[in-house]
Design a protein that fits this description.
Distance between the termini: 44 Å
Structural class: alpha/beta
CATH architecture: 3-Layer(aba) Sandwich
Strand order of the largest sheet: 1-2-4-3-5-6-7-8
Number of strands: 8
Order of helices and strands: EEEHHEHEHEHHHHHEHEHHHH
CATH topology: Rossmann fold
Strand content: 15-25%
Oligomer: single chain
Shape: globular
CATH class: Alpha Beta
Length: 283
């Protein structure tokens, strides 16, 4: 797995395919290749896909006890794309990676051709309570030993045996304490955006998701029925079809943004219209 220096880290990443660049960010405790394995066969046909491991995850060595926060992850992403020489790019994120992607978009919307995020909520609860429970290392070790073993296999070779315990605690602490994105910040995300969620996501209740959708200037919303947090894993066909339609719909805008017009959105081309909220997503 190649690495590059970014923000004081040796970021481990893989790259596949050819075409416009897309960076795909994984969720907490996972890795990009694992989270996006069901998307890679189609994405690499249309894009040059970059799959970095977040700090403290997989091959990107970092002791999470030294600090772990959304701001650090956003700075890592900024340095990573700069090191690759990506002036503009498509950005995809799930859960932890989605919060990184959305926060990056509030600060650097002009760098993005499109944004696709899944499984994140901008409210404090229930994310904090769910994270404290699910990411408790002692609970995982006693109640979910198979997952504990998987976490050790995933992170241990580079991070060290048992490093996942420190990582999980650091992630949960960040979720509890991180500054919440404000409506004013969300309105800065003038980027064609697809939100993708399962209707049974314990981290992101549907009313919160609809509220987020309404605050983003150029968003459309996919709600997968009878689906949990990992929408792209649990409903890959639906997710992939929605992503393909999204990229077709926004292709002209993405090309214009790549050429330097970072102000363009689909809604500006359509004279201010935006995609309707799907019936199943209405509160």
């Amino acid at each position: 797995m190649p690495t590059l220096q970014a923000n004081g880290l040796e970021v481990a990443y893989s790259v596949e395919g050819a075409g416009p660049p897309v960076v795909m960010l994984h969720g907490a405790s996972s890795s990009a290749r694992e989270d996006w394995s069901a998307q890679l066969p189609s994405f690499r046909k249309a894009f040059r896909v970059y799959l970095p491991d977040a700090r403290g995850h997989g091959g990107t060595r970092w002791d999470a006890s030294r600090g772990f926060s959304t701001d650090l992850l956003v700075a890592d992403l900024a340095a990573f794309v700069d090191a690759l020489g990506l002036t503009t790019f498509h950005l995809v994120g799930f859960s932890l990676g989605a919060m990184t992607a959305l926060t990056y978009a509030t600060r650097h919307a002009d760098r993005l051709r499109t944004l696709l995020i899944a499984g994140i909520d901008t409210e404090r609860e229930p994310r904090s309570s769910v994270a404290r429970h699910l990411m408790d290392a002692e609970r995982i070790a006693s109640e979910e030993p198979a997952w504990a073993a998987q976490l050790d296999r995933r992170h241990g070779p580079v991070q060290g045996p048992g490093a996942w315990r420190v990582l999980m605690a650091a992630i949960a602490h960040d979720i509890v304490t991180q500054a919440l994105l404000t409506p004013a910040e969300l309105r800065q995300v003038r980027v064609p955006t697809l939100l993708a969620y399962g209707d049974r996501d314990v981290f992101a209740p549907l009313p919160h998701v609809v509220a987020l959708y309404r605050q983003l200037p150029d968003a459309r919303l996919l709600v997968a029925p009878d689906c949990d947090h990992q929408v792209m894993v649990s409903r890959p066909g639906l997710f992939n079809d929605a992503a393909a339609a999204f990229y077709r719909e926004t292709e002209a805008v993405a090309r214009a943004r790549a050429s330097g017009d970072g102000s363009l959105t689909v809604s500006t081309i359509r004279g201010g219209s935006r995609a309707p909220i799907p019936k199943e997503a209405r509160p």
